[in-house]
C-alpha cells in the first residue's frame, strides 16, 4: 500500500482559495459556500439569479483541472483506488449524512466554523471522528 502524498504548499494554496471564495460569497450574496447546497440549488434553483451564481461556482470547481493543465502543461493525476460500487455506496452515505446533518463538510467546516456556529462545530467534530475511524479501520483492520 502506498502512503498519502504530503503536499503542504498545494494544500495551503487550496485552503486559501476556498477561504477567499467563501468569504466573497458571504460578503457579496450573504450565502454560505456549502458545495452540496450549491449543487442542490443548481438542480432546483429558486430564481434565475440563484441559478447564475451557482452555475458559475460549479463551473469553476469543475474547470480547476483545466486551469492546472493550462498553467503547468500537465493534467493533475486523479487516482481513485476504489471500485465504482464503493464510490456509489460512499456517495449514498454522504447524501444521507448531508440530509441529516443539514449541510456538508464545506458548509459546516469552512463557513459554519468561521461563524462559530455550535451546530457546525458539532457537525465538523462528528465528520472528523468518523473520518479518522474509517481510515483506521480501512488501513489497519481490513488492511486495504
Task: Describe the model.
It is a single chain. With 144 residues, the chain is mostly helical. The protein has one domain. Helices cover 74% and strands 0% of the residues. It contains 7 helices and no strands. It has helices at 8-29, 35-43, 48-62, 64-72, 84-100, 105-114, 118-142. The termini are close together.
List the keywords.
144 residues; single chain; mainly alpha
Provide the domain count. 1
Give the helices and strands as they follow along the chain.
Answer: HHHHHHH
User: Beta fraction of the residues?
Assistant: under 5%
User: Globular, elongated, flat, extended or rod-shaped: what is the shape?
Assistant: globular
Can you give the mean pLDDT? 86
Number of E-state strands: 0
* Global Rg: 17 Å
Low-confidence stretches: none
Enumerate how many helices there are, as a single number.
7
Largest sheet: none
Helix content: over 70%
How would you classify the helix and strand content by structural class? mainly alpha
- Give the end-to-end Cα distance, rounded to a whole number of Å: 8 Å
Amino acid at each position: 500500500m502506498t502512503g498519502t502524498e504530503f503536499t503542504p504548499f498545494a494544500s495551503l494554496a487550496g485552503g486559501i482559495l476556498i477561504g477567499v471564495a467563501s468569504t466573497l460569497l458571504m460578503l457579496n450574496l450573504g450565502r454560505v459556500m456549502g458545495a452540496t447546497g450549491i449543487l442542490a440549488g443548481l438542480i432546483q434553483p429558486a430564481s434565475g439569479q440563484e441559478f447564475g451564481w451557482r452555475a458559475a461556482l460549479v463551473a469553476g470547481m469543475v474547470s480547476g483541472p483545466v486551469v492546472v493543465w493550462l498553467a503547468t502543461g500537465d493534467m493533475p493525476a486523479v487516482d481513485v483506488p476504489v471500485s465504482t460500487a464503493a464510490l456509489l455506496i460512499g456517495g449514498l452515505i454522504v447524501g444521507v449524512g448531508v440530509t441529516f446533518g443539514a449541510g456538508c463538510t464545506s458548509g459546516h467546516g469552512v463557513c459554519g466554523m468561521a461563524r462559530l456556529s455550535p451546530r457546525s462545530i458539532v457537525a465538523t467534530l462528528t465528520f472528523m471522528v468518523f473520518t479518522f475511524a474509517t481510515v483506521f479501520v480501512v488501513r489497519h483492520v481490513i488492511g486495504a
